[in-house]
# Entry
Amino acid sequence: MDVLVAYDIGTITPEGERRLARVAAICERYGTRVQYSVFECRLDSAGLERLKGELADTLVVGEDAVDIYRFDRSIEEVRTSLGRARTFRSGGSWIF
# Structure
């Protein structure tokens, strides 16, 4: 399944900056960065659960937010891009 992960991590403190780096590193293991805080991921059900678990273990409730959107079709089919061309091509399986 294709998912989109978007996050907003509180970075007022040095610990917040470290959490931001950890969240980005987690997302980089599961997908492709398409914006500073947005990743496209192709996962199976187990991979999605692992991703959610790793993120939940990293976040501070009340300071951080992560939204995960699941698509019923591939991201390529539902994406409309405007402006600058993408520097990558999604497709194929990324993680299982």
In short: The chain has a mean pLDDT of 89.
